[in-house]
Amino acid sequence: MDEEQLLRQVARGDRAAFEELYRRTAPWLAARLRRRCADPDLVAEVMQDTYLAVWRAAGSFAGAAGEGSGAGWLWSIAGRRLIDGFRRRARQQAVPVAPPPPHAPAAEDEALDGVLGDEMSTALRDLAPELRAVLQAMVLDGFTVRETSILLGVPEGTVKTRARRARLVLREALS
């Protein structure tokens, strides 16, 4: 069974399907969250909230037209929960939460390298880290300008400026 089929089973209240879905998806989801948040407590909180939401709302995935991928649906829930967690923390603290510095290439980066081609992969790798973070959040993760602003801990205007600069730099590198 794939994740979409497991989600349909979870929608019917199948605990074994939920456990299998968790076993398959929790490792990559946690790794993806850790790349965007250095606080292990917040990551654990987001994971718990995400899978609780999945258990409660699996029917909304199973009944959706076009449905999409189960992994994409899980990530959209987790990404929104992470943004909510950043908002809560920002209200509790005066200091904005910044993402961790980049580490070894993520699996998603390696996968993109194989899909995009050498020229585009090189251009993306050569982008300044702050420009690449904006593109990753907005293009790859599908966050809005506002959500990207919260995720990266920068004003919305800065997100817009960085997105524009990143597009210009990529255009120049690829021309």
Question: How are the secondary structure elements laid out?
Answer:
Elements: H1 3-11, H2 15-36, H3 40-62, H4 70-92, H5 107-116, H6 118-126, H7 129-140, H8 145-152, H9 156-174
Fold and architecture overview:
The chain is 77% helix and 0% strand. It has 175 residues and is mostly helical. Helix 4 crosses helix 8 (145-152) and helix 6 (118-126) crosses helix 9.
Task: Describe what is shown at a glance.
The protein is built from nine helices and no strands.
Supply database-style keywords.
175 residues; mainly alpha; 9 helices; sigma factor; WH-like_DNA-bd_sf; RNA_pol_sigma70_r4_t2; transcription
Alpha-carbon distance between the two ends: 44 Å
Computed structural class: mainly alpha
Largest sheet: none
Q: In percent, how helical is the residue content?
A: over 70%
Count of alpha/pi helices: 9
Count of strand segments: 0
Assembly level: single chain
Strand content: under 5%
| Unreliable parts | none
Question: Which series of helices and strands comes N to C?
Answer: HHHHHHHHH
Question: What spatial form do the alpha-carbon principal axes imply?
Answer: globular
Radius of gyration: 17 Å
Average pLDDT works out at 82
